[in-house]
């Protein structure tokens, strides 16, 4: 891989993928809608070319994909736009990859697996989700794997990390660093996975460098599971936060959904805070190598430091 295109480069995982590619000496085209944010994130990066455009404009994608070896699809759009726009988005990305005759590496979540079953979920676990968004993710997988170019999917748990602005944990951390009363989504005693975005980026870039990784889906787990209580304790020890952290319940979000369409779409995904999906990464370890796994204490501290420095 000499040159890569990262779609959604201004988002949490997209930003981390650009950083990982640059570390490996790979030229990167960083693509997103907002030029100012791209310039802020990637200032002084010699290997990064900034390109702005609309992923729903096929010409913008085709121009950005010229002469690249791999496209990393890390675009995130609001839940309320999923039903109408996600299939079109995936088709646009696939067509751009086909036109460029390059490989395609797709950042995916765990929605297509549905509820957890009490044990770790591997890639053979049935994809028979009970949510509309999970069903859409299955549809997107079908669209991508019908492409005429090599495609791989990487399934990640919820993100946290530098520039992961829309992550659930960022919602908590943001109030903490302002020294305001914070809120945590879901039962604080339940343990679940959150992947540190630089770890996820290392894993998907490594996959993209292996020919045998294409034509398959891969699970990328986090560094174990952790409860909300433990996360908050790490936060308190790092920045001496003393205020209480309230729990956001499903009922609260359902009520907010009466007035806010984004909150309305969050409700069906809250099963992940009750019946967590925990990923089995043994396939990756057997076929590719050791999984990156930054301990939560270190990853959370780095994330908080980034947020405090970058406001």
TrEMBL record:
Gene Ontology molecular function terms on file: aldehyde dehydrogenase (NAD+) activity
Annotated ranges, domain NAD(P)-binding: 8-107
Pfam family, one: NAD_binding_10
GO cellular component: cytoplasm
Protein name: SDR family NAD(P)-dependent oxidoreductase
Organism the protein comes from: Bacillus timonensis
